[in-house]
Design brief:
The structure is a homodimer. Chain A is of the alpha/beta class. Chain A contains eleven helices and nine strands. Chain A is globular, with a radius of gyration of 19 Å.
């Protein structure tokens, strides 16, 4: 089964957009130039729209600030967060491509143990173009990689797997820890390069980080809404988590796959743990209700598209999490607005 | 959370037995001497009991052949397979220790990427002594290893995890493939050292290989029955798979953890794929019924011990798989006999 993966040949130039949320000059792109330059960039400028963001020469990009978001979406712009990296999902909404890769502007090119620079984008594309195996665990990890296969005892009927919707990459150097862990272990660095890609099994939730993430927009795009965070909201740093929980239950319902592992990027700078704690603290306790909610979500079998699933999920959020805090009522409404905006900007061809 | 793992100090000398099923002289132990010599070995001699098996000097061992099995178990000896490595579970039955490590006699000491010999047993012990995380996926793998932790978005209430019942190790060189895959890829070798230990999530089945396996006998011992295989049976090479499926659904029911990944051993020799195909072919199609069965098993909440769970599972096997082949009726009866033998040899202190 390893054959397909070795035949995958990036770059898929015309089928992928790179989405970057930022508040600063994008000097970090210099290091990514050999890998990103063939692609179109969608830069979502957060914060003060009057500020000019410098983009290194030679990149093909479009840049949208808050004024553009408001102009394009009108009243529906309320579903796009401000002063939070959750604003990145605006880029997902306006892209017309099949695949999205999104990366934070403090993430640099990592090296593998042999010292070679890692082409994160190529690995994401390989992850997305080969099937996932959510229905049974393969102990030798991704059976579609060269040199690997399904092990003895893996049912043959399950070996075709499922289409891969999401590829979740990891981080060397600064790990993606919450504020309490940052405070307790300020010096911990991730130095372990784990040479594996694996499917997160059906029925299992995971913490999806938006720092180094790719997905098939046609398969799961409408579920990649990063919620209401930041300015005017009681919470931050749960944008990608929220998207991950929603997307995973929908992937499970629709028999789509989610992979995690390779590729690594080099995460350069830990964000301020005190600021993070302020953003996170409500999330840390709300999460104790949110997770059991997502673990018990059952979507009706009549929901056969991501949009239908997402609309249903928004109802369940309102109904089952509304009592936790009025925020979830607002979030459920924003989920509806997001789907309306998605359908408006991404009309299905008749 | 990484602290506990770094404080684990093997060897646990008086709490662990090494179980080795074999039909030949155990010269392979020479290579393992620095790691195994402190431990007690239970050697289960398969095949002709009149043959003498040579064990290198200096090891503390007991050796049991078929005559011993028959003498000790009387009519219940029927549940112990003959001419199949499934006989290894006799060693699990008669051990009085808390932990078991079992290894095949064609498995040698592997080296990590730095060239250092891997102490497989020490890694298994570390895996067993630290908690598993079956209720939520941690993207940085085992949070109890040095240099790792739970990532942002991992619910705090789930961070204590679950006691680890099983540690499933992997194999460099000859991968554990089924006969069809062996035939199709005779030259494939596993050369990828994946530096990870992970928990197999709750609700997910996996193919458990008996080649390099450790478990907590107190927590899961009665479920580690390797079934009826080999001589007089229509099937072989599904002994460890059967044990793995039974053990996993029981671990899930009792909130116990199963880990897979490190340690690697060096698997020296591929078994004959033509012989394997003969042993496996019924299993390959029966499995298409077996897996849906195990995926849908729900054990009653009244079952609070492994023995109770296993007895219940034997009833379900008879009821739900009996129609697949009369073999499963026999297997279900053997499961009952096994549990009776377990209770006889391992009476619970009053």
């Amino acid at each position: 089964m390893a054959q397909p993966s070795t035949q995958v040949s990036p770059p898929l130039k015309d089928e992928l957009d790179i989405v970057i949320p930022t508040i600063r000059n994008l000097d970090f792109l210099e290091m990514w130039r050999p890998f990103f330059q063939p692609y179109h960039l969608i830069i979502v400028q957060d914060g003060d729209p009057s500020k000019t963001i410098r983009v290194p020469d030679g990149f093909d990009y479009e840049l949208h600030n808050r004024n553009d978001v408001n102009r394009l979406l009108g009243p529906k712009a309320s579903c796009i967060s401000f002063k939070d990296s959750a604003c990145r999902c605006f880029g997902f909404l306006i892209s017309k491509k099949k695949y999205i890769f999104t990366i934070d502007d403090d993430c640099f090119v990592a090296k593998d143990p042999s010292g070679k620079e890692i082409n994160a984008l190529a690995q994401h594309i390989q992850n997305l173009l080969t099937p996932s195996t959510p229905f049974f665990f393969n102990t030798l990890y991704d059976p579609f990689r060269g040199g690997a296969d399904f092990v003895r005892g893996y049912p043959f009927s399950l070996r075709s797997g499922a289409p891969t919707a999401i590829s979740h990459g990891l981080w060397l150097n600064i790990p993606d820890y919450d504020a309490p862990t940052q405070l307790v272990k300020p010096l911990e660095r991730n130095t372990r390069y784990v040479d594996a890609v694996m499917t997160i099994p059906k029925g299992t939730l995971f913490p999806m980080c938006g720092m180094n993430l790719a997905f098939n927009r046609e398969l799961i795009g409408p579920a990649m809404y990063f919620g209401l965070m930041g300015d005017g909201q009681p919470i931050g740093r749960y944008d990608d988590m929220w998207a991950g929980w929603c997307a995973k239950v929908i992937c499970d319902h629709l028999s789509l796959g989610v992979k995690t592992g390779l590729p690594y990027i080099w995460h350069s700078k830990a964000s301020n743990p005190f600021v993070n704690l302020k953003k996170e603290y409500k999330g840390i306790y709300w999460q104790e209700d949110i997770i059991p909610f997502f673990q018990s979500v059952v979507l009706p079998k009549e929901c056969t598209t991501v949009q239908q699933c997402y609309a249903e999920l928004s109802k369940l959020v309102k109904e089952k999490l509304g009592h936790v805090d009025p925020y979830f009522q607002k979030l459920a409404d924003a989920m509806v607005t997001w789907i309306e905006a998605w359908e408006e900007l991404n009309p299905v061809a008749q």
